[in-house]
Amino acid sequence: VQLVESGGGLVQSGGSLRLSCEVTGLDLEYFAIGWFRQAPGKEREGIASIRNTEGTTHYVAPVRGRFTSSLDNAKKSATLQMNNLQREDTAVYCCAANVRTGLSLYDGGYDYWGQGTPVTVSS
Question: C-alpha dihedral over 115, 9, 18, 13, to 10 degrees?
């Protein structure tokens, strides 16, 4: 099983980035994908999740309305579209998969993790 993120980079405040999470070894029809981030000096936080069986999503307040997650089971990939990025969004972003806990953003419930991709938002 492997999850590989891409799409991070440097963007100005107000800009957009689209992160991808390529998944091998899992059938996304049976897994939920969560997106997490860890800013410098801070703990990792879950920000978004999506469950393919129902197409339902969950977002935490700081990103709701700006970030959108999606799944493509045929392409075995997940994406996180991030709009109106702000400096406080600067972090390393990673995706994770779980088969048991659905849309929960409790990181202990996730079975597989990617290595992460850095996002830096400049003012």
Answer: 130
CB 38 within 8 Å of CB 62: no
Three-state SS annotation for 57-100: EEECCCCCCCEEEEEECCCCEEEEEECCCCHHHCEEEEEEEECC
- The one-letter amino acid code at 71 reads L
Give the closest residue to 91 by CA, choosing from 57, 52, 48, 50: 48
Q: How far apart are CA 81 and CA 2, in angstroms?
A: 21
Instruction: Give the pLDDT score at 25.
Output: 93
Report residue 112's pLDDT band, with 50, 70 and 90 as the boundaries.
very high
Torsion of CA 108, 34, 118, 78, to 10 degrees: 150
